[in-house]
TrEMBL record:
<keyword id="KW-0716">Sensory transduction</keyword>
<keyword id="KW-0807">Transducer</keyword>
<dbReference type="GO" id="GO:0007165">
    <property type="term" value="P:signal transduction"/>
</dbReference>
<protein>
    <recommendedName>
        <fullName>Odorant receptor</fullName>
    </recommendedName>
</protein>
<dbReference type="InterPro" id="IPR004117">
    <property type="entry name" value="7tm6_olfct_rcpt"/>
</dbReference>
<comment type="similarity">
    <text>Belongs to the insect chemoreceptor superfamily. Heteromeric odorant receptor channel (TC 1.A.69) family.</text>
</comment>
<keyword id="KW-0472">Membrane</keyword>
<dbReference type="Pfam" id="PF02949">
    <property type="entry name" value="7tm_6"/>
</dbReference>
<feature type="transmembrane region" description="Helical">
    <location>
        <begin position="244"/>
        <end position="266"/>
    </location>
</feature>
<keyword id="KW-0812">Transmembrane</keyword>
<keyword id="KW-1133">Transmembrane helix</keyword>
<feature type="transmembrane region" description="Helical">
    <location>
        <begin position="79"/>
        <end position="101"/>
    </location>
</feature>
<feature type="transmembrane region" description="Helical">
    <location>
        <begin position="133"/>
        <end position="150"/>
    </location>
</feature>
<keyword id="KW-0675">Receptor</keyword>
<dbReference type="GO" id="GO:0005549">
    <property type="term" value="F:odorant binding"/>
</dbReference>
<feature type="transmembrane region" description="Helical">
    <location>
        <begin position="213"/>
        <end position="238"/>
    </location>
</feature>
<feature type="transmembrane region" description="Helical">
    <location>
        <begin position="20"/>
        <end position="37"/>
    </location>
</feature>
Length: 344
């Protein structure tokens, strides 16, 4: 599919609407290939996290702990359903718009026109001389390509977000155990040591997840910013020209980019807050009733929590809600300048 779009862009680069569609689908295809390749070729970090998740569900017998894990599992399922549902809706909309535009041109213009497809591929198919009676089959195949691309791109995001939410649930259970830590004489130091080792283990799992997605996030953020700006500019031009089809398409592209960025930003923000709140839970525990050695050791837990594990793109750009708002503000400022240029 990526090669078809690349060839189509090479053959016809003057159609703005087709170029926008091609750039969106091409970027999604590259992201899908990169994510699937990364998760399948180097899956060690993900496997360790999923093995830990499976162990947790078998180990935690307390109703309170299971309730925490189920709540975070529900958050992961909701994120998965939202992303996949939005992806399928966008793919269906792209296909439906191509079909409606084809019918409209057939009615309005009494001439032979090249049929429209979900993927910009008219010139490529004409070049290889695909018979017109195979239009429906080609149309369905391209629609399935969009669905598979959505699964590879946003499906990989759903997988990552789901296991990250479970990790946040594990941190929530750890905080509950720290608050409930009581003075049991000789067993107190041993119980505290177990909690510290658990904290270190969870931080290692978080670092593994961040290492898995780090460089993919660089391309994800860059491509999303470019698509938001270009589609926003096309959106302004389409509104000025009264092009309803292009307006709808560009709005869907911007919405898809914003939803995808919001998923990563919210998850990164939530992970950071959970890691930071380990220090808060340690401070609000009954440390004053614990042995002196344990109370002193708690200071190091609080100090370590002040430098939480954060979701970073390329190990240097923090991804959280502040980043999300900064991207939106920058994009809107850019679009405001372009709008003034168009109006003038």
């Amino acid at each position: 599919m990526v090669m078809i779009i690349y060839a189509e862009m090479f053959l016809d680069y003057r159609d703005a609407e087709k170029s926008l569609d091609a750039m969106v689908i091409f970027t999604s295809g590259i992201l899908a290939i990169a994510k699937v390749y990364r998760f399948h070729v180097w899956p060690e970090n993900l496997i360790k996290n999923f093995v830990s998740a499976s162990t947790d569900y078998n180990k935690f017998y307390s109703k309170e702990k299971r309730a925490i894990l189920r709540r975070h599992a529900y958050m992961g399922r909701m994120a998965c359903a939202s992303l996949i549902g939005f992806a399928y809706f966008s793919a269906t909309l792209f296909s439906a718009v191509a079909m409606l535009v084809g019918k409209e041109e057939e009615i309005v213009v009494n001439a032979t026109e090249a049929p429209d497809y979900p993927i910009p591929s008219e010139l490529v198919l004409e070049l290889v001389q695909i018979p017109k009676y195979l239009y429906f089959i080609v149309f369905v195949m391209e629609y399935l390509m969009l669905i598979y691309t959505s699964n590879g791109n946003l499906g990989s995001d759903s997988l990552f977000l789901g296991i990250t939410f479970h990790l946040c649930g594990q941190v929530e259970v750890l905080k509950m155990e720290i608050i409930k830590l009581t003075n049991e004489n000789e067993r107190t130091s041993k119980n505290f040591k177990v909690l510290v080792e658990r904290h270190i283990y969870l931080m290692q799992l978080a670092k593994m997840l961040i290492e898995t997605i780090s460089w993919l996030l660089v391309f994800q953020l860059f491509s999303s910013c470019v698509l938001i700006c270009t589609s926003g500019f096309q959106f302004i031009l389409a509104l000025s020209a009264g092009n309803v089809i292009l307006t709808l398409k560009t709005f869907m592209v911007m919405s898809a980019c914003l939803v995808q960025l919001f998923g990563y930003s919210y998850t990164g923000h939530y992970l950071k807050n959970q890691m930071e709140s380990v220090g808060h839970s340690t401070y609000f525990s009954a440390w004053y009733d614990l042995p002196r050695e344990v109370a002193k050791s708690m200071i190091y837990v609080i100090m370590r929590a002040q430098d939480p594990v954060e979701l970073k793109a390329g190990s240097f750009f923090v991804v959280n809600m502040e980043t999300y708002m900064s991207i939106i503000k920058t994009s809107m400022s850019y679009l405001s300048v372009l709008r003034v240029m168009v109006n003038s």
